[in-house]
UniProtKB/TrEMBL annotation:
Gene3D superfamilies noted in UniProt: Metalloproteases ('zincins'), catalytic domain (3.30.2010.10)
Domain of life of the organism encoding this protein: Bacteria
Residue stretches spanning the membrane: none
Protein name: YgjP-like metallopeptidase domain-containing protein
Pfam families: YgjP-like
Domain YgjP-like metallopeptidase: 40-238
Signal peptide (residue range): none
Length: 251
């Protein structure tokens, strides 16, 4: 092990600390980062918890004091999280921005598929045992997200004359997508729950970084030129993006 790692390692350091605010007690997850210069707090929207990042030489005493000072902020931010919507029968799921009710089809062969009833109601049918519903819906949404994002990314790569080498689908909490200079793109599967023009914009955004690896004025011109709905999609994400993190989780 490198000397620097030995220097900053903390034996038996707890993974979380408790912070009390009023009558509530919150568990704060601790994360030590070698590049951190100060203590910071953020809310993980899908895990529905607060995370405190500590600098390498930070102490547990200082971390507890910092978290306690920000107890009101933690309580307010966690309290504003939208209500959880687990993948259970009856849950309304906005597949490509259109509500679909999850319906369990016990005894029917298959996995997950979408249907439209005679009444016009959109449903998402899930076959198999009840205990497999959550996993099957997650897997279905990830497959659909990969398909739509791969198609959109290739479209913009052709327009901009760049090459996409790989697409990864994850559950990123702090960003909707990312890009490396080698052409590897990563996206949140939750984009399949947004209207198609939002997913399309995020694909254009990340492919645009293969032309400009920054957020300069030139970068935004590149994206805006190939994606006319850029501003509309950005406004939708600002207003409704956080709501996407409530699906597939439980309180």
């Amino acid at each position: 092990m490198a000397f620097r790692a030995l220097l900053y390692r903390r034996p038996a350091e707890p993974q979380s600390i408790a912070v009390k605010f009023g009558s509530q007690i919150f568990a704060i997850r601790l994360r030590r980062h070698r590049r951190a210069r100060r203590y910071t707090l953020r809310i993980h929207p899908s895990d529905r918890e607060a995370i405190l990042t500590m600098p390498p030489r930070g102490t547990l005493v200082d971390a507890k004091e910092f978290a306690q000072r920000h107890g009101a902020w933690i309580a307010a931010r966690l309290g504003r999280l939208p209500k959880a919507a687990p993948f259970h029968p009856g849950t309304l799921l906005p597949l490509r921005g259109v509500d679909h009710k999850i319906v369990h089809r016990a005894g029917v062969r298959g996995t997950v598929w979408a249907e439209t009833r005679d009444s016009g109601e959109r449903i998402l049918c899930v076959a198999g045992e009840p205990e497999h519903i959550d996993r099957r819906v997650h897997d279905f949404l990830k497959r659909e997200a990969r398909r739509d994002l791969a198609k959109a990314a290739q479209h913009y790569a052709d327009l901009l004359g760049v090459k996409v080498t790989r697409i990864s689908i994850r559950d990123q909490s702090s960003r909707w997508g990312s890009c490396t200079s080698a052409g590897s793109l990563s996206f949140s599967w939750r984009l399949i729950l947004a209207p198609p023009y939002v997913l399309d914009y995020l694909a254009a955004h990340e492919v645009g970084h293969l032309v400009e690896m920054n957020h300069s004025t030139k970068f935004w011109r590149v994206v805006g030129k190939v994606c006319p709905q850029m501003e509309r999609a950005k406004k939708w994400l600002d207003g409704f993006g956080n709501d996407l993190h409530r699906y597939g989780i439980t309180d």
